[in-house]
Tetratricopeptide TPR_1 repeat-containing protein (Treponema succinifaciens), 209 residues
Amino acid sequence: MNKKNCFAFIIFFVFVSAVFSQASRPDALKLYREGKYKDAVAVCEAEISNNPNNMDSYAVLCWSLVGNKQYKEAELRAIEARKINSYDIRLIEVLGEAKFYLGKNNEALDMFQRYVANSSETAARLGTAYYYMGEIYVRQTKYEHADISFSAAVKYEPIYSAHWWTRLGYAREMCGDFKNAVTAYDRALGLNSQNYDAVRGKKRCQERL
């Protein structure tokens, strides 16, 4: 084998080795989507150890921590990651989620508003951010604001969850908008006919019409 062929073989061998190495490496995002949150966290921690500036790993890490209900840890890691890149909208949104579950309503709302303001119309978690904003407004008894937020949530993800439509119905019901509340409850029941909250909500509103 001449030098040229030998060099080409080495390059090919390195390339193939890299491909196989990548293929055999656990996929943290795949683990997260499968609901294997602890496994995803472990993979992300290893990736961050090798590359402390890996924002993709930080994002999946924080999503997985929230998924595993480790909200305080998710908050701390998201804050840590934002010291590297404060403009990463994924971390802004997941920090909002962590703060929401920790009961830090105003801080969470600020994060979600920042996410919405800096996201495109096709952002992956835009509907989710609006949903959480709606829940915060319900906590604050600002039902008209909740109506607007839940309406935006189901606009971006209309078939995502019967629960979102139910919450929209509830916000409208609390505003006294019983007709449109029934419409929202009907959409929820169209997705899940066994949704007890939607059944009760619709019955209450119909009695007021």
Q: What stands out?
A: Confidence is low (pLDDT under 50) at residues 7-24. The domain at 120-209 is CATH 1.25.40.10 (Serine Threonine Protein Phosphatase 5, Tetratricopeptide repeat). The chain has two domains: 1-102, 120-209.
